[in-house]
Amino acid sequence: MRNLFTSLGFKVTLTDGFVRTQRIIDVLQGVRDQIGHSDQIFVAVIMAHGARGKIKSCDKDVELKKILEIFNNSNCPTLRGKPRLFFIQACQVERHDEREPQRTASDENIYWNCDVDLYKDCLLSLATPPGFVAWRHRDKVTYLSALRSVFTQNINDRKDGSSPPDITELLSTVASKVAYELEALDTEESEKKMKQMPYFMSALTKKLILTPGKAS
């Protein structure tokens, strides 16, 4: 992901390791404080364990709405009117239990609620909808690997000279890739088929097209 966004002209800050909640907040606030008026877009890519509307650190959960709040217009006025994109690779379920009973239509509103306030000019893309597991496997397509592949193919490797698709079209392609390829690569050893559908919410007020070396 670092190479991808560097190729798109982003200044990339990389933090890894299983860290405490305050460290996560400090890193995000530190990045926010470096954003200048000439910067035109912000992107955060987070890979972690998760729960509904949260990511997990080594001491406690961090709510996604807290992360988005750090970059809202009040806390980050330099990004006012500019797109802010958040890509989250994390489960969105409290506990994965294969014995969990089948959910019914009456449960739908409960499971499709990640309790996130989506601010103007923000886009939140999740590896999986609220209430579901995000699969990770070295031999199977994952949300972030699909994101990298689709963005590279449609932005950096575009040969026909046409404009790349906008961000929502790209994310729809990512969702399709994950949904179909993850199931197709399932092994015969398991009777239980795996399925995953990435999910995004957008409050962007303008069409966003990423191009090599810059965003417009």
UniProtKB/TrEMBL annotation:
Residues 166-212 form the Caspase family p10 domain. It comes from the Eukaryota. It holds the Pfam family Peptidase_C14. SUPFAM superfamilies: Caspase-like (SSF52129). GO terms for cellular component: cytoplasm. GO terms for molecular function: cysteine-type endopeptidase activity. InterPro entries: Caspase-like_dom_sf (IPR029030), Pept_C14 (IPR002398), Pept_C14_caspase (IPR011600), Pept_C14_p10 (IPR002138), Pept_C14_p20 (IPR001309), Pept_C14A (IPR015917). Residues 1-95 form the Caspase family p20 domain. Gene3D superfamilies: 3.40.50.1460, Caspase-like. GO terms for biological process: apoptotic process; positive regulation of neuron apoptotic process; proteolysis. PANTHER family: CASPASE, CASPASE-2. Belongs to the peptidase C14A family. This is Caspase-3-like protein 2 (Uncharacterized protein). It comes from Ornithodoros erraticus (European soft tick).
